[in-house]
User: Fold this.
Amino acid sequence: MLILGITTTLAIALVMLCWVLYSKYRESNLEDEFISKLSSKIAQQIEHRTPLKMYDVPLRYRILYSAIDNFLKVIPPPTGLDKLTGLMNRIGLKSRLAMLMPVKKGYFVLLDIHRFRFVNNMFGFSLGDQLLKRFTDRLKTMPQRPRLMARMSGAEFFLYFEHYCPIEDLLELQQQLQTPLKINNTPISVKLKMAVLGLEEHYSDVSTMLKRLDLALKKSVTSPLLFSSYQAGDDRIQDRELAIIAAIPKALTKDEMNIVYQPKESLPCSGFSQVEALLRWEHPEIGFISPAEFIPLAERAGMIDIISHWVIEKVLHQQVLWRSAGLYTQVGINLSSSDLCCDNLVKDIKSALERHNLPGDCLSIELTESSLMEDTLKATETLHSLRDLGISIAIDDFGTGHSSLAYLKRLPIDEVKVDRSFLEDIFNDKASLFILETSISLPKKLGLDVTVEGVESRKVRELLLRMGVNKIQGTYYSEPLKPFELELRWDELSKTRIAELTRPSMYLA
Assistant:
């Protein structure tokens, strides 16, 4: 009877274990397969109604648990969980959020580890994964523990707080989470962008809420503010952005986009040896779309490379036409950080130059400071390769990004373009004038050419001439011109004339 009792107890325990395991995986599509396989394993280990000897019971338990453990190892985790962090993923979160619909209280927070791609590129994906795990641990130990947490994608994390969070608490939370993490003895700075959404204000269904939270985060990423929230009308803005993104391929194939060229005046004598290629887009329904609007959208959508290739081909084709007519100039082309990180950039440009039978010095590549800081190692390698082709390198909007004398010395740069914003209030404010002088003198002392953008008057031109500026660009010398317009004005713009110098004004005293 004792042996039979042990057998019965063992059978009951196994049934309970099966039920627990079944409950754990009942949301999975593997329910039937799980039960059938587990039953077969049990059947192999226990012969029903056959008495067991006392010394066999522990062994049978060990064999059974070993079989179950081995089987569980081959079952994929539930689809609602993120494998790396153990948090819910977007799929799992949606099912949990649906249960909150009647609640109508609390706050949703969406966090993004800013420039996380830079961490992966600089230190490798392994360290990036460790950073995400450590950041998840930090989220789990917050004083104000969220009711729900999820990893949405990449370096985006979702938090749900049941109770109202004052702005001060949110800022304190952001500050706590931004404390540098030390991984493999390497301190990694964490900068967060944050979006906040009140459940009672904007929540009608899960999809709408997540869409609006994503919209708010996008605003935060492109804003200097610490966090942002959804505002009425943001949906319409996104609809316009999606329409613009969708229209880009057609705009390139149907010639809705075109290139205009703005000459740079050489100082101290007039004339030009360079022009900058500027992209214009006239959409048949939307109307004129500024590059300041569609270029960032193309970068976010991963479409900037097709635009850049189109521009390069158009510019080189135009160079062939000009040179066949005896017109020679260098054309500056703007490239983005995404272009700079592309492994095929140098090879593609070299191939295009060879295809058009053009030398590399017919091109100048213009890059912003921030694009160089995305991945300095990759940028340095790419720029050296471009210089080897004879292409000159210019830093655009100098002084508006991550300004550093170190990169001016380290990177193969030929020209610095001082942003138009440095010309504001220079005749009324000595501090503004000093900043402009410094922005010009520093790169010149490093042997770099200096171009100042946004020159719109003779007075500004004469001031820049005295400061030793090499070139100016702006409407005072010439507005952006279509190719045929530039050809008509080529001789006029190329005429050499001695610049008139006037007596120093009081503002220079």
Summary: The chain is about 50% helix and 20% strand. The first strand starts at residue 107 and ends at 113.
